[in-house]
Structure of L-ascorbate metabolism protein UlaG, beta-lactamase superfamily:
Amino acid sequence: MEVTHYGHACLDVRTQGMRVLIDPGNLSQEPPLSGVDALVLTHAHADHADIDVARRVHQESPQAVLLAPPDLAALWQGDGLPVEAVRPGTAAAIGTVVLAFSGGEHALVHRDLPVVDNVGVLVDGLLYHPGDSFDLPDGAVGLLAAPVSGPWLKIGEVMDFVAEARAELVLPIHEAHNSEVGQRMALTRLSHVVAEYGGRLLTPEVGEPVRV
């Protein structure tokens, strides 16, 4: 499996000859949009789900399956995009690749703000992208994409999330809200947690592929 982080929430995953693009939003760099087999959107927030990017994926990769939680799927279906709704506890086979979905709701930002649908996605039983939540799938995670900034989290919760997952590899994502100082602090804290159980923290440059 080859994983490229294009900034913030966006991961480009290539495995078994297939390509899965996850959460290309408006705070990410734009990945190549042709040759995509599946576009997975974990939830409706624009930093994860940019409708203009989704339209271009549909145009440039007409074979791509578009997958999103029910509220986002219904919204974009109304805009003419063929988005399939996925729910926690279900899975989808994209060629030889299996995408398993978990979670259900976005983490709470504030009691007065609405909570949208959110699905985490486990790609081929190895890479887990949680969207904006700390829900974990059943079973082991080999490579955990760990959010490190946002109005819905604090660093102690991220540390607990990583410690609970005990993934061999941890890739920090969702960093756009951090200052340079805040990002250094987050990576220092995660390095400590990962070292405690013998894992490894990955810190590639944006756009630099990582093979796992």
About this structure: Helices lie at 51-60, 70-77, 155-165, 180-197. The first helix runs from residue 51 to 60.
